[in-house]
């Protein structure tokens, strides 16, 4: 659906993107993460035709040229959308659908506005819309011409929690229709809930790419194991502590909970043996995966 090869962008002597390779498959919701200044906006601008790369290629639908026919199959919700404030939402959508090559009836426009949570505001002039309402309208504008590939840049930024859920449900519905979605968001829990795969861009280079599970299991950082256990006798405590921490550093210890750090799940058997060796009953043993937020923060701090 989308293939990016060796994409590089220089501004003078500054390299913003460094030989980026990326593939987005048909029908997936693909998350794209990067801190401010990582090159994320430049990358998206190139993909959507707003900027030209220094070198490399971008291929949509097996077509390297971003022709008008290709553009008609792409929808874009930018971080900040431009609107015609003198039009109401229905008029606005019908106008943008038409310039994208598709005629949309008033009923069809109303149906899309309902899906983004603007059912009761469809005949209100856009100039009277709040920031959050304009974000919803921008979302509707991105999909009104029934594109196959949809860029959504921060789709729930600036909307209330209830509206965010509505928009997230709409994203899921679009995926079920077979749409391919390229999603950026600073809301990492949203990325984790919606995306089948993600990529993390740092200093113009993709440093991580894969499913959420792959990122968590392949991450070089340690896992934590939280153990609920019985009381530890005072006589045995020091020896138990020394033996356990020798191969699994103790992150936290409370009277009946201990959290240790491991590099490999094979260490779990030795952890249990250490508890049994000192006759300490184990009631619960949980491996705590890193959250996407922790992986993202660690990725920013490396290098």
UniProtKB/TrEMBL annotation:
Transmembrane segments: none annotated. Pfam families: ABC_tran, DrrA1-3_C. One of its GO terms (molecular function) is ATP hydrolysis activity. SMART domains: AAA. The keyword Cell wall biogenesis/degradation does not apply. Residues 2-228 form the ABC transporter domain. InterPro entries: AAA+_ATPase, ABC_transporter-like_ATP-bd, ABC_transporter-like_CS, DrrA1/2-like_C, P-loop_NTPase. Keywords: ATP-binding, Nucleotide-binding, Transport. Gene3D superfamilies: P-loop containing nucleotide triphosphate hydrolases. Belongs to the ABC transporter superfamily. PANTHER family: ABC TRANSPORTER, ATP-BINDING PROTEIN. This is ABC transporter ATP-binding protein.
């Amino acid at each position: 659906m989308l293939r990016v090869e060796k994409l590089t962008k220089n501004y003078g002597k500054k390299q913003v993107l460094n030989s980026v390779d990326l593939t987005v498959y048909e029908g997936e919701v693909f998350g794209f993460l990067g801190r401010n200044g990582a090159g994320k906006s430049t990358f998206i601008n190139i993909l959507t035709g707003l900027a030209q790369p220094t070198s490399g290629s971008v291929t949509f639908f097996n077509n390297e040229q971003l022709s008008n026919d290709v553009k008609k199959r792409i929808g874009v919700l930018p971080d900040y959308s431009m609107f015609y404030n003198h039009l109401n939402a229905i008029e606005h959508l019908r106008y943008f659908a038409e310039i994208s090559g598709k005629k949309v009836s008033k009923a069809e426009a109303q149906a899309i506005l309902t899906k983004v949570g603007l059912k009761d505001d469809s005949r209100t002039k856009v100039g009277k819309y709040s920031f959050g309402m304009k974000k919803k309208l921008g979302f509707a504008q991105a999909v009104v011409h029934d594109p196959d590939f949809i860029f959504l840049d921060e789709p729930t930024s600036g909307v209330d929690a209830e509206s965010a859920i509505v928009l997230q449900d709409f994203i899921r519905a679009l995926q079920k229709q077979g749409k391919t979605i390229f999603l950026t968001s600073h809301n990492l829990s949203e990325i984790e809930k919606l995306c089948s795969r993600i990529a993390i861009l740092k200093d113009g280079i993709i440093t991580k790419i894969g499913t959420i599970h792959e990122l968590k299991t392949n991450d070089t950082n340690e896992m934590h194991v939280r153990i609920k256990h019985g009381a530890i006798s005072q006589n045995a405590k020091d020896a138990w502590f020394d033996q356990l921490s020798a191969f699994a550093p103790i992150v936290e210890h409370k009277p009946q909970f201990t959290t240790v750090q491991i590099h490999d799940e094979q260490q779990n058997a030795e952890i249990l043996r250490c508890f049994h060796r000192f006759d300490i009953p184990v009631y619960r043993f949980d491996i705590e995966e890193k959250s996407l937020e922790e992986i993202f923060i660690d990725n920013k701090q490396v290098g």
